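Field reference: "sequence" (input) and "structure" (output). Example, Sulfite oxidase-like oxidoreductase:
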Amino acid sequence: MLGKFFQKPTNQEGERVPPGQYLTKGFPVLTYGATPQVSTDKWEFKVWGLAKPATFTWADFMALPQNEFTADFHCVTRWSKLDVKWTGIKVTDFMKLIEVDSKAVHVMEHCYGGYTTNIPIEDFVREENFFAFKVFGEPLPAEHGGPLRLVVPHLYAWKSAKWINGLEFLEREEHGFWERNGYHRRGEPWAEERYSN
């Protein structure tokens, strides 16, 4: 398997690859359950919990400032892909559209297909995080989370939820799907926060 699909990082790449990770030659697709197929004309995004309830359409998202991002991507299953080129919308730009109670300390990401994952609010609102709708210049395919996914480059990729369609703001930590099933609460790659203790 190593060599055909994955390779050890070179010395130069090593500074960018967290411990225990290998570089992928492709862009693996890992999904639990069926891949949702959602057209942009039916797609919607909701905000609730400790935030003023709001619903956004695809057009609402596309009206926000769009940016190009290049970010490394680290999967908990031990592969990394460097310099992934995305097009998307900064989380910080989206946050300007919504009203969040100051008591909110965690965010539950909700997705088409029923998937959830949690993230501390300070990890969520970082300047480098974004909602992606293109990868390498092409519309984000469904198998990679299209039409829209969150990308949180500083955490393992399961926190970059595919098919995202909502944010629930919480006053305390609650665990999402993978966190309830043995994955680490935060998932920081450089600390190898893969699984819960």
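The chain has a mean pLDDT of 92.
The chain has five helices and twelve strands.
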